[in-house]
Amino acid sequence: MRKLLYTEDRVRKVFAKMRGDLHELAARHAAEVESLRRELDEVRALYAKLRSVSLARQNAEAELRELYREREIARARAAERDPALPLQ
What we know:
With about 90 residues, the protein is mostly helical. Helices cover about 80% and strands about 0% of the residues.
């Protein structure tokens, strides 16, 4: 008869330990995933804020260009032309 290297009880204990290790790894993984999701949500919020500020700046610059254009048109209309000068 061959000598048993591992008893059934010993094998069950080894598998129980491995199962416990797997549960611990799964819990750590879930915690890490949750942490990364929170960080991603923060980054998304910062991106949305940055995007809105950038769009507001672009709109303000466009409005300023339009005001400059309107000012130049008003100046051109207000300017008197010297009738002695030829038209260009």
